[in-house]
Amino acid sequence: MRVLFAALASAGHTYPLIPLATALRDAGHEVHFAAGEHVHAPLLRAGLRPFRPGDAFYELYAEDLEPELARLRPALVVHGWGVPEAAAAARSAGVPALWHGFGRMFPGGIGLPVPTGGTHVDICPPSLQDQDFLATAERIALRPVPYSDPGRIERASRPLVYLTLGTAFGTPELLTTAIRGLSGLGAQVVVATGRVSPDELGAVPGNVTVRAWVNQAALWPHVDAVVHHGGSGTTLGALAFGVPQLVLPQGADQFANAEALCATGAALRLLPDDVSAEAVAEGARKLLAGPGSGGHRDAARAIAAEIARMPSPEEVARALPGWAERG
Fold it and tell me: Which CATH superfamily is domain 160-307 in?
């Protein structure tokens, strides 16, 4: 079976699709991936035949994909929530198509149209998912698998706190504030600066390691608490390993994610006006505390167990040829 994947050209939108794409490839199917060149390097390393359709840079439009659908003649299109015009192009070409989520169904008004209709590959555990979406959407559950390039990270001898504000929302001021609070906890602090150059943060204490990019998938098994912006990838990656979270939402779907996380008990939240070094330190201290201190770790581990029960990418890949034939 030939399958065409399509996504916005960013890690947050492309990486969630890679586990299913590689599972299909490993099952013997021919997989191609339409996206802007910004994400071609990791897709090439994963063996997923990336190409840039039309004039696409970040977004994809129906006119970008229509000639590629005629050229490749795929049996199935799998496209991210962020590229709704891929659904229109597939429908016009008479090709079965699946929406592929990147986390919790997001609210309107964040700059992306809310996907409607069709069948959704849903990587969000039901306890965190939007309840209206659960009740009304046709869904194929898929276990979220954190993806990043191969690598290995050694376990620190003391508690490890991971700080990231993603690739689009970090500022030197916010990162510096969080570092100032976290550095006094007696923990090892690993910081991924994203769009902020590490040089912009100046000198940091000896227990703080600053990198522009961190292999998140390799880091998760060693993390005791994470402080982050509430992006879907970090949210689900932490939950898959039972890591409690302190969320500092900045925009997009992050406020809704933070609210849903706090409702499960797996996280604490600081809204922008409440962020200070002292507040970040206090929140992280609560997450690192032992049993009986709020249950955030227990709640996160309960969701990790829920995620582990979701169908694996390999299981879903085995079922998709039959779904495509029916579609």
Answer: Glycogen Phosphorylase B; (3.40.50.2000)
pLDDT tens, residue by residue, 20-57: 999 999 999 999 999 999 999 999 999 999 999 988 89
Domain boundaries, the chain: 2-144+310-326, 160-307
What is the number of other CB atoms lying within 10 angstroms of the CB of residue 82?
24
The token duo for 5 is 């994947």
Paired strand residues for 268:
246
Helix (H) or strand (E) holding 32: strand 30-34
pTM given for the model: 0.92
Q: How far is CA 319 from CA 17, 140, 141, 312, 313, in A?
A: 16, 10, 12, 11, 10
List Cβ<8 Å contacts ≥24 apart for 142-145.
142/20, 142/310, 142/311, 142/313, 142/316, 143/240, 143/307, 143/308, 143/310, 143/311, 143/312, 143/313, 144/16, 144/103, 144/236, 144/237, 144/239, 144/240, 144/307, 144/310, 145/19, 145/240, 145/312, 145/313
CATH architecture of the domain with residue range 2-144+310-326:
3-Layer(aba) Sandwich (3.40)
Residue pair 327/91 in contact (Cβ under 8 Å)? The answer is no
Q: How crowded is the C-beta side of 197, counted as CA atoms within 13 Å?
A: 3
Helix ranges (H only) for the chain are: 11-14, 18-26, 40-45, 62-72, 84-93, 131-136, 172-182, 216-219, 232-240, 254-264, 277-288, 296-309, 313-326
Residue 271 burial by CB count (10 A; 0-12/13-18/19+): exposed, middle or buried? exposed
- With H, G, I as helix, E, B as strand and everything else as coil, classify residue 273: helix
